[in-house]
Amino acid sequence: MKSMRQYGKSFFVLGMVVAIVGYIVFAYSYVYADEDKSAYVFYKASTLYEKGQYEEAIAVYEQLIETGQESGNLYYNIANCYFKLDKIGFAILNYERARRFMPRDADLAANYAYAKTFVNEMVLDAEENIVRHFINGLFEKTSSNELAAIVLLLWCVFFGALMLVSLFPRQKKYIRLVLVTLICVTGLSSFALLERVRVADKEAIVITSEIPARFAPFERATTHFTLFEGGMVYIIQKKGTWVKVARSDGKIGWIPEEHLVRI
Amino acid sequence: MRKIRRVILFLCVLSVAGVSVFFSCGSAADVDFEISIDRNSLPLGSVAQLKLTFNDTQSMPAPQLPRNDGFESRYRGPSTMMSIVNGQMTKSVTHIYSIIPLRVGNYTLGPFTFSHRRNTYRSNSITIHITDGNASPQRPTGQGGVTTARGSAQNALEDYMFMTMEPTKTKGYLNENIPVTIKLYVSQLRVSDIEYPKFSHDGFSAGDFEKPRQYQQLLNGVYYEVVEFNTVIFGTRAGVFSLGPAQLECNVLMKDRSQRRSSGFGGFFGDDIFDDFFGRYERHAVTIAAPAVTLTVLPLPEDNKPANFDGTLGAYSFTVEASPQTVTVGDPITLKMTISGTGNFSTVSVPSLENEEGFKVYAPQIQQKDDAKYFEQIILPTTDAVTEIPKLRFSFFDTEKGAYRTITRGPFPITVHKGTGGETLRIIDMPESAAKPLAKEVLGRDIVYIKEYPGRLRQKGYRGHLSKLYWASFGMPVIVYILFAVLMRRQTRLRTDVRYARKMHAPKKARKGIAHAAECLRHKDVGTFYDAVFKTLQEYLGNIFHVPAGGITVDVIDSLRGKHSIDEEIIVTMRTIFEECDMARYAPSSIDSAKMQETFRALKTVIDEIERCVR
Hints:
The complex is a heterodimer of chains A (263) and B (615). With 263 residues, chain A is α+β, with helices and mostly antiparallel strands. Chain A contains 9 helices and 8 strands. A 5-stranded antiparallel β-sheet of chain A has the order 7-6-5-2-8. With 615 residues, chain B is α+β, with helices and mostly antiparallel strands. In chain B, helix 6 runs antiparallel to helix 10 (593-614). The relative contact order of chain B is 0.06.
């Protein structure tokens, strides 16, 4: 009985650690101060949108961003404004930003798919590794913060299960089955999370209608392929005012950095 | 001695390394920079090699060549060289560029100035003479000088290749079809991978290009290969608009004479034959542009617009055939209507009857060919009172004359008999929903409306999964698990190893016993005090040395001599305590409080000393 109490203490400590860390890491990111004022600014911008004053609406929405706040709804509305102004590149850029916050939002998915039809690019995706494609597809509808929380939680549950193996040796067989499942799920979600970490700040959207990607970082270099407004690229390297980018089909070239914006 | 040898060896190695590094780094003054070209005279349409060579170094990056109107350059790559002759080492790096001449003339390359790592390098200069291309075998002789479409001598690459964009008219009406022809002219060049041209058409809707035509055309005395692209545009709103400019991308194949493969036959056959045979060409991507054209889209006039005008534009004729002309009530009559001419047939709809009273009219079958549209419509007379098929009207806007026209055909006399055998015609209409064929629903498309609330706002740029605290928190469950494992192991040992368990619990029990003895000492209860002291010491020694507590006697204490590094003094003290406990049991009156204090201190000292020895 006494030892069970001590084991219970271990679980309690573990649970408290998870709760505290989770709160610090994720709740800290939310802004609680002055929500009324932010809502007012948001409403003011939405009114401008209704009147068709899209540029003014964008300026007001961006006031919220300048105060250090962001949300999926905010980027979604900004993207809609850019779409109405026929700036497909900026529209897709902001839709991508909104997807990082709310990947399961149906309105966002519909608008994003519609905006993509305006992208003048017929590019077949490179043959991605099947395993990577499958794992990324599993967690496509989870935001990065949600995925991070899932991984941390699974990690803690895994160690909790390890403790149970010691406490209940007779149930070892069943607990081991749970452990194997946990290892698989934790591994998959960790891989997906590491992919997100790898591409963080490296994905960008082309905002110029048409820009040639060259073999070398200067204007006289031969054109390799062309990038169109709204296309997504992955930034590999930066040299001066030029960046080396990879397109979805795997082609790599150099373009001036001013023609794209990082997501 | 050995140490000195090691130091000397280390210094020698260091010196050799230092000297090699020193000699491998050339100073700016030692590095030569020179430029060279494989030939000084280049015809248009060929490629030459320009080499920028840095001697006495191999670590120079490729310089960027300054812009020149006479030619284009493209970086091919570096080539390094190192040789040791008679103990003298020489090395160099050469950056190779392809030079493509664009216009005839004499050009000077260099001197180039290049800066690298705070050093500046200056090269020599060379002169290149760019000549006209070879004469085409198809060019007619005795026709006068060679001129281009622009009337000047062919002295630029664009004179060999240019593009035009021509609509058939520069003024048209809203929705009026305007054919547009884009022609690519190429002379004396090989071109491949020609893409369809692209042009901006703000204010117009453009159809797909037809299959391109290819032919030869003589223009100002020069034969050109022409690729012709045709399409049709029509204005979607009134105003003045700029069509184009049009752009077309293709590859120009240029002979690369610079890299001559060394053949074993050397000068016998010459390299040119093999070059031509194997076709050593380089592809260079080019973009050709045709200038923009201004078009005016006129709105349709409102004056004299017929009531039944529905947006048809063009110049048409309209004919109608109706058969049979003698029918029974309910029998079908077929109206075959033909609209032919020129115009936007997508705007042509079925002409309507002046009135449909007495007839049941069905939707027509429509067929369209290049310059005509056919409508075949069935009508059923529902009563024998009908004597004619009413007039059919077709209204359109004649774009050639700039006025509305209405062509009327009919009326067509018919004879309708009553049905025989008492059978009366009953035209049964199916319910509305089943009678009418389901028209394809045209859905609108636009983005979904904005969100009305800002949602959960968070700090901009913060991402939990990238923070160090997040990744550090993965260590917490590991630490907790390790602590848990250590605790489990200890508990298991305490459960299974009695000797270990007794030894672990001994100090705690001793402390309890000492506390009880102290309480008795405070109350000056001699008997209970010495009982507590005896029991405490006995149990403590039994737990520490894993013997039954009741078996601890003076003899056992004596046997501890020499074991566990216990001092003789402690052994003596223990004996004394036991003896005092015996005495207190039998003669308690001889014990005073000073004695009790002394015994208490001795007990604590013994336990502390034994703890120090056994831990």
